[in-house]
Amino acid sequence: MLKLYAMFLTLIFLVELVAAIVGFVFRHEIKNNFQSNYKMALRQYNATGDYRSAVVDKIQKTLHCCGVTNYTDWKDTDYYLGKGFPKSCCKIEDCSPQKDTDKVNTEGCFVKVIAIIESEMGVVAGISFGVACFQLIGIFLAYCLSRAITNNQYEIV
Questions:
Q1: How do residues 108-130 score in pLDDT, each as one tens digit?
Q2: Exposed/middle/buried for residue 97 (C-beta within 10 Å: 0-12, 13-18, 19+)
Q3: 155 phi and psi angles, rounded to 5 deg
């Protein structure tokens, strides 16, 4: 059973290692994919409670930004043509910006999201390294205990 535990732990460790390598190799594609999906969410934005719209609002309120690259990204959307900027673009609480560019944040959200992700990469890498170390220690100790039990099996009488 200990050998089986160690094998499963090794398998999980290898899957995590492959996932980390793939994430590192394809990090630029992940950024491009995020940017294209964010642009699509802006084009399909509506204030009726769609989950994509809620995410766009949450990002814009939290990071104090508007649009993907800047606030002008909203001008290409159907929502802007009908109602103007969403309330989540406002510089201050409880405003209705409509099409007034003075009341909205001018900076885009993509740059801010990427900056936050890159600033937190050290923490993620540190935690991942710590988990990997504990897994390796667990694998080593499971094999050692299994070997000790196997070697002492014939001495017990």
A1: 999 999 999 888 888 888 898 89
A2: buried
A3: -85, -20
Torsion on CA atoms 102, 103, 106, 108, rounded to nearest 10:
-160
Block residue for tokens 């995590």 = 16
Place of tokens 């209705």: 96
Mapping DSSP onto H, E and C, the string for the chain reads: CHHHHHHHHHHHHHHHHHHHHHHHHCHHHHHHHHHHHHHHHHHCCCCCCCHHHHHHHHHHHHHCCCCCCEHHHHHHCHHHHHHCECHHHECCCCCCCECCHHHECCECHHHHHHHHHHHCHHHHHHHHHHHHHHHHHHHHHHHHHHHHHHHCCCCCC
pTM here? 0.72
Contacts for 152 with CB less than 8 Å, ≥ 6 apart? none
**Maximum Cα interatomic distance, the chain, rounded to a whole number of Å:** 89
pLDDT digits (tens, 9 = 90+) for 83-94: 888 888 888 877
Task: Please name every residue paired with 98 in a beta bridge, in sequence order, or none if there are none.
Answer: 85
